[in-house]
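User: quick one, fold this
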Amino acid sequence: MAEKRTVYKIQDLGGVGEVHISDEVVTIIAGLAATEVDGVASMTGNITKDAVSKQGIKNLAKGVKVIVQDNQVTADVNLNMEYGYNILKVSQAVQERVKSAIENMTGLTVTEVNVHIASVDMENEKGK
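Assistant:
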């Protein structure tokens, strides 16, 4: 059974056509933005920065949930931290990066980015 996608109209081009975006696209944008932040080991679901190129971009949706209502986005990002990084600083950087990426790429307004730390990756102790 195929997963149900929700599609949102983000622009009406006045007689030329409309622009629609699926919730999956917003989710992928958020996941990719979060993995770009130093200190993020992976998204929950074990999607690392290296795994994105090997397994495909759609796997970035694991660990991310977005709700879009009235052109406003609430995002929940679940991630694993790298050992030695400051959780508050990394979380704030993730919030800023996800908000900026979604707003710049879609034109939607991000009202919340909630970061949930699932674990700390002790495998690659960097001691930052």
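User: anything notable?
Assistant: Residues 46-55 have pLDDT under 50 and may be disordered.
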